[in-house]
Amino acid sequence: xxxxxxxxxxSEDSFWNKITRMPGxxxxxxxxxxxxxxxxxxxxxxPVWAKIAIIGAxxxxxxxxxxxxxxxxxxxxxxxxxxxxxxxxxxxxxxxQDIKDQVESMLPEKCRGIISVEPSYKS
Length: 123
Hints:
Number of helices: 5
Number of strands: 0
Radius of gyration: 14 Å
Number of domains: 1
Distance between the termini: 39 Å
Strand content: under 5%
Order of helices and strands: HHHHH
Oligomer: single chain
């Protein structure tokens, strides 16, 4: 089985197009994960290896016909969320309060202030 390179699906315009057109049932967790990766991508302190992984993850998120097509109600974003959450677990050390504040300001009102799950091994 060959792996698909989803990084070609990513661009800043395609990211914002996807975010603004997502159905209301996609959930705040999906939006928060996508926005966190987007902010990390734009941070100068994020290492190049992480940015490459983020571009691939956001490309996967943007591409509508991935493992579970996004048009399927209720489950269409489950694979996107799982993949983004796994990557965010690897990038947790780079998520500081400034990043969290930037993400919070990007989220729609209904998603702001929702406590996200964070690893218990915080330093």
